[in-house]
Amino acid sequence: MTAAVMPTYGRIDIAFERGEGAYMYDTKGGKYLDFATGLAVLCVGHSHPHVVAEIQKQAATLMHTSNLYNIPGQERLAERLVANSFADTVFFCNSGAEANECALKMVRRYHHTNGNPERYRVITFNDCFHGRTFATIAATGTEKILDGFGPKMDGFDHVPVGDWAALDAAIGPNTAAIMIEPIQAEGGVMVVADEVMVKLRQVCDDKGLLLIVDEVQTGMGRTGKLLAHEWSGVMPDVATLGKGIGGGFPIGACMATAEAAKGMVAGTHGSTYGGNPLAAAAGNAVLDIILEKGFIENVQRLGDLLRARLEDVCQRNDAVVEEVRGRGLLLGIKCKFPNMDLVTAMRGKGVLVPPAGDNVLRMLPPLNIEEAHIDEAITALEDVCRDLGQ
């Protein structure tokens, strides 16, 4: 890697030059099955013809205008997200972290508008991950990502998921909201039980708090629902999107009910690039595919199949891997060997997979994979487990 690039990443020494469907090809002729998808970004795979065509068409006509003007593609994308979710309104930005920043500002503004400006604190959960900005690293709260960036921004309290006594103790007169991921993906692919989501909704209703659901990694069909909180039947006040919404093009979205967003009037928030014509074209193209009849149901089917195959691998290789976690096509395998050993060995077999916290190996394939791709990934995992087990 050139010294001109700031060394904030521990990069693997591979450079990719193209991708097609579920595969990536490096500059030395290597071919890899992509079960990482740029960390759940490439939800419809590489170079999907419809996404490519829509981006090319938009780029050839109008790439950018500021949000000083109406943007028809943005309006269409917002209307479609609203029509297929709990939300009444959407703010567009460039990333999941920015969407979370918008959500955090929104809940403060909500209570300010209601005459309660003292309500600004947000309760988040141990093992969460909400982004890399000053506010979102404070919301995440782990020492690893806070180290060297102190003092930590005030306004966040952390409790374990499902510890109701700790949650009750953390709620005070300054509490504004509770923020949670339906699956703590970076934290180890830990699924938040549906009954926990239901109870959090009830706590928020009882205490006058807003419920923020971080769907940056779990949204856009990844779990077999458009948004993962739908599994619990819970309606949040605010939900955030990033990663998969643009299918590879940077775009984020903060979705909210009209009540939660009532304080977000002209001048309270903004983004130069957010929801510009090119980003909106990418988002609409991805939605065209995900909203096709049967697409999300097929994600459920493929997720069930992949999970069953992974559980079979765990059963036969219990000295190396011990359990499968997750939902849909956001799955994790708890490892008994260091997870990076498995990540490296899988790459050696031509399959890209990312790690996660709690010594977990993640599997984040494109949502439109075929059963043959699952077969290929499982064969590689079996080989890796056998080699490590010996």
Protein traits:
390 residues; alpha/beta; Aspartate Aminotransferase, domain 1; Aspartate Aminotransferase, domain 2; 2 domains; 7-stranded mixed beta sheet; 4-stranded mixed beta sheet; 17 strands; 18% strand; globular
Short description:
The chain contains twelve helices and 17 strands. With 390 residues, it is α/β, with parallel strands linked by helices.
Q: How much of the sequence is in beta strands?
A: 15-25%
How many β-strand runs?
Answer: 17
Biggest β-sheet description: 7 strands, mixed
Shape: globular
* Uncertain parts: none
Number of domains: 2
The chain-level structural class is: alpha/beta
Q: Biggest sheet: strands side by side, in what order?
A: 4-12-11-10-7-5-6
What gap, in angstroms, lies between the N and C termini? Answer: 35 Å
Task: Give the count of helical stretches.
Answer: 12
The portion of residues assigned to helices is: 25-40%
Radius of gyration, in Å, reads: 21 Å
Q: Kindly provide the name of the CATH class of the largest domain.
A: Alpha Beta
CATH topology of the largest domain: Aspartate Aminotransferase, domain 2
N-to-C SSE series? Answer: EEEHHHEHEHHEHEEEHEEEHHEEHEEEH
Q: Name the assembly state.
A: single chain
The CATH architecture assignment of the largest domain turns out to be 3-Layer(aba) Sandwich
Question: Would you mind describing this structure in some detail?
Answer:
- The chain is 36% helix and 18% strand.
- It is α/β, with parallel strands linked by helices and 390 residues long.
- The protein folds into two domains: 16-34 and 293-389, Alpha-Beta Complex (Aspartate Aminotransferase, domain 1), CATH 3.90.1150.10; 50-290, Aspartate Aminotransferase, domain 2.
- A hairpin with a 2-residue loop joins strand 1 and strand 2 (23-26).
- Helix 10 runs parallel beside helix 12 (371-389).
